Amino acid sequence: MGKFFERFPDPLARLIVVFLAMLVVGLFVVIVLIPKPMKDVQMQWADAVKREQARPVKYAGFRSCGECHDALYETKKTGYHRDLSCETCHGPAKGHTEDPDNVKPVIPVERAFCPQCHAYDPSRPRGFPMINPVVHNPLKSCASCHNPHDPKPPTTPRECSACHGEIARTKAVSHHVQLECTTCHKTPQQHKVSPRAVKPTKPQTREFCGKCHGKEGKDRMAKNAPKIDLAEHGEKYVCWQCHYPHSPEVEQ
Amino acid sequence: MNPELVHTLRELIPQIQGYIYPNEIEIHWGLLIVVYPYITGVVAGAFILASLVKVFNVKEVQPLYRLSLLTALAYLLVAPMALVSHLGHPERFYEILLTPQTSSAMAMFGFVYAWYLMAVLLLEIWFVHRTDMIEWAEHETGLMRHIHRALALYSRDTGDRSVAFDHKALKVITIVGIPSAFLLHGYVGFIFGSIKANPWWSSVLIPIVFLFSAIVSGIALVILLYMILTPLTGGKISMRCVDKAIDFLFYAVIVDFSLELVDFIHRVYQSEEEIKILSEMVMSKLFASLIIIQVLLGMLVPLTLISLTKIFKKRFHLNEDLRKMVYFVAVILIQFGIFATRWNVVIGGQMFSKSFRGLTTYKMEFGGIEGLLFAIFLLALPILILAVLTKILPPWKEMHGQPAPEGVEAAGS
ipTM of the assembly? Predict the structure, then answer.
């Protein structure tokens, strides 16, 4: 052995001994001391996969909703919410698919829900429908005006808003947002030609507003509208003489 | 959101601008990850400076040779500390080497690091000092004698055959060492450059920019140490050596600056979707650290200062003290500049949201393993290690310009 090392220069021989010693110690540690499973990185992955597989399945997927709720499914398919899964709003529904009668998915009716996406945030993309939840029809549930399965932003027809822009903007954030202009106004075709000579009509009777706001009001849209007793409330006047109809404010 | 998390983020949330994803509010790669590339950079740079003597035969910088090797070793010993401390379980560091995950660039760093430490730096330092250590041990008593004998591996052979082998080995090691140093630091840039999802990092230029800034910081630091340590140990600063080293530093800074400028112009010219948020970040959150410290104080001012000494050559060469002062200021500013470069890459890359619509903020802790105090400790530790190393392997003779022992000087030729 001594003769073998004599063939090398002294420094090299010494370094060879040091490196051989380190190699032997290293190999001993890697081969003998470390248990085999510890060297297997697959082991950790396998554990993670098992752990994930063992977790209960909670979501059913939107296709399974369509099997029973086909009408809603079809409506949603073409609307603005087409890219949202049903369970985005209704929560995990695996339980409901297994036991439809006893397990009901949530229906988010509280006002705080929709503003999670639709509250005003300057960083959201331009054109994304956003509202200020404090002033936008306070106290009303979003679904009372908007069909969540096919939401369409209420718009004023261009032929009205072109001239009556301010009214259109006021109405857009008012309780009457869902009402078409023609619900209250009958507009002769000639109005567009000679707007000052031929004017649209205005409701002339108290009963017109009473259709929604009267105690007996049966209109579908008016389910949540404030109700009054037409016989006792401001009987001498037409409603719009006191309440501005494009942004009606009342004490609740 | 988890109330505990909200509590810890309370101070950050009011400082967030625009829209940011919840997992981006807190910056996860903090100060330690800033310190880490800074330290590896110094290692690579100091080694490149040392190789100027051995490979490129630049005799003027011979006084810096041993100091730069010891500086590289001192910083190399601390380099992985920042990384493993950041990972949270420093005591498990050896597991990276025992059960390596070969597809992880960071785990492979363990092997690059081990190779660089064992096969390059320690061997080079050993070969440089072997005959010295034998000689020192002969004239010493007590503990130091034992240390030197053990470090020389109990060799007593100073014969021609062994010394000739030392020289040959040194040359080979240095030649192998240069690509190794590039690999050691280039890999840090490689990690950042590979993160495709982050447009602040995802650039093929990043590894090269890292490399050149590493060379800049290493050379500048060794010059700074030389200018401080030489008078402290009773020697006289060799202006011939400093002038030459500053020359190399000057070229390295120019290349580094040009590369960063190219990267910047490329980004602006491409003007991809992220350009808006990046420019907003540069003009608000990173204004002080990028524009003021990195570019202005860390590059333009030192470049101007060094250029002045070249333009007004006569005046500056007559006044050696003025030149020294200018160099001294320049190398200190460069250190701050390079540290700011690391800061801007690491922190900057995490400050903007992947939504490109918001900016978060970085709150530095004072105590704790990710805090300022620990980072200062890590930055000071190499200096302490260097102090110990210079006790064991004193480089003073060479630094003071006295001829090194015959063998070592011959190695440079």
Answer: 0.73
